[in-house]
Specification:
heterodimer, A: Rossmann fold, 4-stranded antiparallel β-sheet, 9 helices, globular, B: mainly alpha, ABC transporter involved in vitamin B12 uptake, BtuC, two-stranded antiparallel ribbon, about 70% helix, binds adenosine-5'-triphosphate, binds magnesium ion
Chain lengths: ~260, ~425
Amino acid sequence: MSATPVLALRGISKRFGAVQALTDVELEIHAGEVVALVGDNGAGKSTLVKVIAGVGPADDGVIEWEGRPVQVARPHDAQHLGVATVYQDLALCDNLDVVGNLFLGREIRRFGVLDEVEMERRSRELLNTLSIRIPSVRIPIASLSGGQRQTVAIARSLLGEPKVVILDEPTAALGVEQTAQVLDLVERLRERGLGVILISHNMADVKAVADRVGVLRLGRNNGFFDVRSTSQEEIIAAITGATDNAVTRRRARSPEASK
Amino acid sequence: MSAKMTKEPSGQGRHAVDAPPAAANAVHPVDPRLLVRQQGFKGYLTESLRKLRSGELGSLPVVLGLAIIWAIFQIKDSAFLSAENLSNLSINIVGTGLIAVGIVFVLLLGEIDLSVGSVSGLSAAIFAVLNVNQGMPEWQAVLVAIGSGALIGVVQGFFFAKVGVPAFVVTLAGLLAWNGLMLQVLGSSGTINIDDSGFVAKLTSYYFTDVGAAYGLAAAAVLLYFLTAFSDNRRRARAAIPSRPTSEIVLRTVGLAVPTFLAAYVLNQYKGLPLALLIFLAVIVLLEFVLRRTPYGRKIFALGGSVEAASRSGINVARVRISVFAISGGMAAIGGLFIASQIAAANQSAGGGNLLMNAIAAAVIGGTSLFGGRGSTWSALLGSLVIGSISSGMALLGVAAAVNFMITGAVLLAAAVIDSISRRTQKVSGRA
Ligand SMILES: Nc1ncnc2c1ncn2[C@@H]1O[C@H](COP(=O)(O)OP(=O)(O)OP(=O)(O)O)[C@@H](O)[C@H]1O
Ligand SMILES: [Mg+2]
């Protein structure tokens, strides 16, 4: 693992009117590392993702790319740096087909005209290498199931050969098999030397693939943990902000459930 | 989302993401349960039927509707399908049709432009004043008139895209304001007759009388269609992605050739190929190409599908929106010149009446969705043919304009109903 992180956030703050969604948030992602970002509903995870992706720039703070401070004011800036994002709400165009969505914003041209043949060929190739199975690459996105849309959104993020991939709750809508595939995919991205930010509410998923866990609580950092040396309880305590919380109380009531 | 199952058939087990496909028949990322299209001609038929059932009606309703309308009028008055009447119809629809082409672009964004009628009238007035009163060369006056229309579109687009005023309010204000500007430009005279022998007057009165012109155009269109479809297919086959069977391409080509040559034959029975129709078709083909085959067109469709997705993928939303309103304004101006050409004058009532309604109705009747993201410039041709046929037939039968309005209104409602229902069907069958 290299010494300088590919992507580092320093003192990121962001407000929405009366809501201080993020306060002085720090985050570092190294190449070949999977960082899980966890926190309760409304903790600010998605907001942080949008800051990095240039969709909702921060009010305050610095984003460093490979050690240099950079401006990420528009989605284009983030794409240009090599940050690919899969949003929680997916953001696909229902009326376009799978190929159209995969290549949206970076269409392949041939004499200035859309090269549908090449785009379709590459789409099939990509979906193939990711073992993604969908009915046809030429049907509108609207006719895919939630999980299929999710896999298309993930495939889409990988087209631009990114260096950092951000996945905002990628497995939330997925079945058992697809979840396993996404987790495999995350590991494969790490092997390829990409940095991955994985947002998830599922502790099992986090423990399975993440190297480090960063906890956000009420828009602030609430500790970073090494996955191998930290118990699930410690992470949950950081998420809820107390060792005595609804989760531990529940476990105490039914000790066999916590094994 | 629908409750469609996402789980794979059991027994496949978990395998690594980069593992080679488990079986030889899994070479393509195609779910074995769905939509695996049969090869050959039978596959084409079943595919088409499936699309129809799931609400992808395309231009089928409007073509059927047109056939019914023509049959009714022909039964009532045998002059309706005469070469003369059809030839005149093909010229009469061009003004409204060109405006409708611009409306198609705006509708694709899921927006509306209510100013196109006024803009078309203003454009005619600007042209007439510059050319007739000020003596500016005709081609310059034409360019200024069209440029003004596009500029108006940019201004309206700016208020919509940058300031955030709803498009229908901006263009409603435009409807009034540009009409006022037209009255101002025309001044006290009220009516300016344009030069009978000039280029603009020729727009709707010139015919290519040589029979070869109409047939040649038909042949060129059919050949062009066949060659692009064929070479496209060859490229697909070479890239080892699914291609259409040649029989399907041949069938589609024949399907195009029959109406095209029939139209050419009918036009040649009268005075030949009208220049106006040639320009209308050229504009439709060109702009359809822009919509389907260029990155710019893809951006328009993307915005009609999801503004959020479009902007996150780096599309400059404001710029596309402004440009689309510029196209709409520019097309309205061009349409206005054709309408002025027909009456050989620019006058105070130009761009008023039911022109705006007809242009919007034409786009919707032709099959462009009111909900954005679905449509084609061809719907401007089909829709304005329907509207033009109704008013031409009514005039032939000597029915009052009042009835004409009511029938056109009913047809528009029918088209909007079809649009809404097909959208719902598509939702149910998971296609919208
Ligand atoms: N566009 C917005 N306008 C106003 N407030 C917002 C906006 N987006 C997010 N917020 C607020 O910011 C806070 C953080 O929201 P965010 O979506 O980042 O949470 P999250 O950690 O992703 O939660 P979840 O786990 O439910 O996805 C919430 O209080 C939310 O209400
Ligand atoms: Mg979230």
